[in-house]
């Protein structure tokens, strides 16, 4: 009967909810152990300029749990944000990244590399975020201008002006700011001229659609045109094919990241990629 079916439906949803609550609890308690047990690491994905030379990297968080295995940041970063654990984890990421920048500064063929780090809104909302970053920069000796903080449009959603004043304080430290996943959020275009941004990262969904979908192609061209008139750098994310790269170059895009140039990889592999490029005369 309809009544029975209704009951079953309710029970089915209850079970799903129960399941996801258990799953979340499991993930969250595992997440509390990660910093203590050194289960986190950073992978480095190359970023290239218009000539294909590696000019920097994005640091991407990886979590290996002995029981749960490798966990994707798409799964655990949202949880870490909800539980507030992203704050200590994010500081750990920034410290690792700044140490790496300082090491690269010591060698001529890596000294010009920039390193981009994802910063979530919860981190930025911490009253002492700017002071903590200043301390990390001082401790590690990293050059602020080589550090790029990647923020998402959600930074602006709860804005009573605090997001953008934080961003100005960060700019005064000398770090650069990028707007990640651009085009997927809800922010108004007028923000682009008000915010102290250095770069916008064109979301990979537009890059992936640009050769088959005329709307995606139009968005790519529009974003590049707008950025150019606002004197903002554009980095195209998720570039997987030579055809996408060529198409983006034709629209005036200056920076690129994606599997075509290299996947996120452990530091040693990324540095091998760099020295191979260096000795073949690319750098
Ligand atoms: P994101 O910052 O937009 O990072 C780019 C994502 O696209 C990465 O996924 C990367 O592996 C993937 N990607 C790169 N090139 C390609 C490509 O050519 N094709 C495709 N299909 N994908 C590509 P990943 O590493 O799984 O990270 C997912 C998201 O997790 C990141 O998106 C970022 O929002 C978040 N995240 C990662 N590390 C951190 C971190 O340290 N802190 C914070 N707050 N968030 C992080
Ligand atoms: Mg990013
Ligand atoms: Mg992105
Ligand atoms: Mg993303």
Automatic annotation (TrEMBL):
- Stretches of the chain forming a coiled coil according to its record: none
Tell me which domain of life the UniProt entry assigns to the organism this sequence originates from: Bacteria
Q: Which residue ranges does the record assign to the EAL domain?
A: 24-278
| Protein name as catalogued | EAL domain-containing protein
Its source organism is Vogesella aquatica
Q: Which residues of the full protein are shown?
A: 603 to 885 of 885
């Amino acid at each position: 009967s309809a009544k029975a079916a209704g009951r079953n439906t309710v029970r089915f949803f209850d079970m799903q909810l129960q399941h996801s609550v258990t799953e979340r609890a499991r993930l969250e308690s595992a997440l509390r152990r990660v910093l203590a047990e050194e289960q986190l690491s950073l992978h480095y994905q190359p970023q290239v300029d218009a000539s294909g030379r590696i000019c920097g990297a994005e640091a991407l968080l990886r979590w290996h749990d002995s029981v749960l295995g490798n966990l994707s940041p798409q799964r655990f970063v949202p949880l870490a944000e909800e539980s507030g654990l992203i704050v200590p984890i994010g500081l750990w990421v920034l410290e690792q990244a700044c140490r790496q920048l300082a090491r690269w500064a010591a060698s001529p063929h890596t000294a010009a590399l920039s390193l981009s780090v994802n910063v979530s809104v919860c981190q930025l909302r911490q009253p002492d975020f700017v002071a903590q970053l200043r301390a990390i920069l001082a401790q590690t000796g990293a050059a602020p201008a080589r550090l790029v903080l990647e923020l998402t449009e959600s930074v602006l959603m709860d804005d009573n002006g605090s997001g953008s004043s934080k961003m100005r304080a960060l700019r005064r430290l000398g770090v650069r700011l990028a707007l990640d996943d651009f085009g997927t959020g809800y922010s108004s275009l007028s923000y682009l001229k008000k915010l102290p941004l250095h770069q916008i990262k064109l979301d990979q969904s537009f890059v992936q659609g640009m050769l088959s979908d005329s709307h995606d192609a139009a968005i790519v061209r529009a974003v590049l045109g707008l950025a150019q008139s606002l004197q903002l750098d554009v980095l195209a994310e998720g570039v997987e094919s030579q055809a996408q790269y060529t198409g983006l170059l034709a629209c005036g895009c200056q920076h690129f990241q994606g599997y075509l140039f290299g996947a996120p990889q452990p530091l040693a592999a990324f540095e091998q990629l760099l020295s191979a490029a260096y000795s073949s005369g690319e750098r």
